[in-house]
Amino acid sequence: MSDNNKLKIGIYELTGCAGDALLILDCEMELLDIFNAVDIQSFLMAKSDNIDGDLDVALVEGSVSTEREIEELKDIRKRSSIVVAFGLCATVGGIQARFSEEEWTQNLKEVYGDTEMTHTKAVHSKPIDAYINVDFYLPGCPVGKDQFLNFFTRVVQGAPPESYPVPVCVTCKYNENDCLLNKGIPCLGPLTADGCGSVCPNHDVPCYGCWGPAEGANLTSEYHLLQEKGFDIEAIKKRMSNYSGSKFQEFFEQFKNKESK
Amino acid sequence: MKIVKMKRENLSSFLEAISREAELWAPVKKGVDTHAFQVVKDFSEIDLNYTRTILPPRKILVPSRFNMFQATKTEYTPDFSHVSNKIIFGIHPCDISGLLTMDKFYSYAIEDPYYLESRKKAMILGHSCWPDEHCLCKSTNTHIVEEGYDLFFTDLKDFYLVWIGSTQGDDLIRLVPDLFEGEIADQDIQRFMQWREDRDKAYSSEINFVAMADLMELRYNDPVWAKLGEACLACGSCTNVCPTCNCYNVEDRPVLGAEHSNISRCWDACTLENYSGVAGGENFREKRADRLKLWYTHKLQAYISKYGKPACVGCGRCIATCPVDINIKTVSDSLDGANPDAFWNRLSQEVTK
Amino acid sequence: MNGTQKATKSDNPFLPEPARIVRTYPLTEDVNFFQIRIADMEKALGFSYQTGQFAMMTVLGAGEAPFSISSTPSRPGLLEFCIRKAGTVTNALFNLKENDLVGLRGPYGTGFPVDKMQGKDIIIVMGGLGAAPLRSVLLYCLDNRDQFGRVILLHGAKRPAEMLFLEEQLELKGRDDLECHLTVDSDDTGQWTEGTGVVTTLFPKLEGIDPENTFGLVCGPPIMYKFVLQEFLKLDIPKDQILMTLERRMKCGVGKCGHCAIDYIYTCLDGPVFSYWDVIHMRELI
Fold first, then answer.
1. pLDDT value at position A241?
2. If residue A82 lies in a helix (H) or strand (E), which one and from where to where?
3. ipTM of this complex prediction, to 2 decimal places
4. What is the mean pLDDT of chain C?
5. CA-CA distance, A240 to A235, in Å (whole number)?
6. Which residues of A touch C249 (CB under 8 A)?
7. Are B194 and B48 part of one and the same domain?
8. The domain containing residue C101 runs over which residues?
9. Range(s) for CATH 3.40.50.700 in chain A?
């Protein structure tokens, strides 16, 4: 706590599009309340007099993809009582983490060739919990406004949210959409964490998973279901792994082993 | 029960008259071929030619999320803003049966005012229907209802026969008595009899609930549950669309910049991963198969022992909804010894290959 | 037109009463004792409950959770709870201080059938947090000592530091109308003068049990039920005289939210106290 008895908060961006940090500034109606409720010590996007001292809560956006980011992240952990993985990239690694170590090495070589990196060294992109303990996860690409405000107000009250993750299908049914999967459209609703309000299916667009994997997602079943509906393995894999970062890799590795048997 | 006759062309005048009394809810087209109950201002939106809405009408009485009360440290102020006078027009017999089941459930032991207040202020205007391939209400004996409505409209093409089920229903008729005829001619009765016979013949699906509670018990460890668990997407859809599901969660939502919280209640589903978790991280039903067992135990066993009949009203929503074919039909068929053609059955063969 | 004010406090079972933390102190490393009084004095005295029942407690901003009542109805006015720091609500509760306000509603559930237990011998077996609901019935029996036959307490904990109400029970050992046996799995203090070993090792100490005339009560960690039930059965105590209390996630306490369902029963309405006969066929039980 700072002198004025307000929680000290830091907002940090690693590798990502900064969309989650931007979302905070996009809470226009609530912005004054947010800034009144807490003491924002560090928020590169919003202010210039940033202090990197001890924090009550650090919101960390983006995946870890350089050695310097590993150091920065570990430093944030050391200084903060609560660390929140803020947004999809921090939670599961994002699009940049969907490649296996092997593929990543190949990609790096293809793009940068033999260029010597002097500033810092690139590493295989990973979610932040690959390096530090994370207290809370707020997935989303970007994080939803309601989701953030709910989380934020709870934390300000001193009681972290009791997370109750559900898949997109739950909200999609509340919105009384016709099930796209049943129509043969490759929707990832059952595999994807809710928080978006089923915005895509609301417009007859299949869910493509941008909130990352839902807890307990049944990959095997959906994978076979899509196969039965006539989609080929590569197309399914591409769709399912797009936003799942590093989380579905293991699943597809298993398949590789099975197929090669 | 009194029955009167109304010419088809009088329907919109009748709706016009009653919609001045309370908020009118009716089925409207939602997707290409799906429907939903919505508040109707423009009567041309109403589509009575529907089989089932995506969500059952319980959503009108207990919304998927509403505030139960506002809390400060010293005061708890109830919030009943979801309760208002409503007329729900166009409900089918299965859904009326669903509400009757909910009535029993929410009044059992300790009354739930959030449902019951809402229910008291809602008038139920039922409407006849025609079955499709998923309708099981004849098997569940909920294809005809004799209670649970204020008025019930049976559509006989150029006229309706209207059952008056309550004094409140009678009051609605009295708003515009000229639209109704007390005399029902013999040929009208013939038409009704014929309609009933044709409709009974139109059912193409059936389900056998005889001894289902015993079969649930006897087949508790049947391998079919593992197959179902393997395929279940744990998406909660079967639960959310079921007219007799009631589970909910409660959240304390502090209001930013204020000293109070909104205590909000939202639907929950026992088929979801986190449903049976307790403080400290333990989960009593981590396995999807165990959660499905709970759902079916409740539908087919628990309700029978508590209220004398199964909780299924045969609306067919779980059949129309579940992408992997886990539904009341395939599950009870397989408990009954059949080997249904369903994705979950094919998947288990695929996976064990 | 709107029914906004229709259901008022008196007929709304979901509305808590503001209540004050009168006293709180740690019992063990992660379990605190709470004495709570409903702020409205009349309602505080009117809060009548049975042993084994539970209450729902709210911490503003954190949420609501069910807790067994550890005090006895024979001492009205103050409610006592012993609570382990385990989740969001309990974490917030542990941050509160004496005189702070919480919300309270209840009592809920089916308690111990003390009427049926009258005149009978009572064996109470507690382990871990199982002491929370069983302390209520223990104190009730002692407060109404002439209504019961023998009263026997068997209490097991992992280590001396983890035994709930240790001082209180050591004091009770002095009574000649209570047979009190305490044990720990292992003594890491070197000061422990009571038994060592799991709680079932205390059963051989029981002599002259008249099973038809005995009620066996058990509450503790899941593993304990299995072994203690076997001991009760070995003593030939009838299945409907073996009583246990169960714990599940609950969001309402009144049979509506569905979370505490086990097979076809609701823990909050049909329990939390069950006889072994009630639940013998339940697969999801322990």
1. 86
2. strand A80-86
3. 0.94
4. 92
5. 9
6. none
7. yes
8. 9-107
9. 7-156
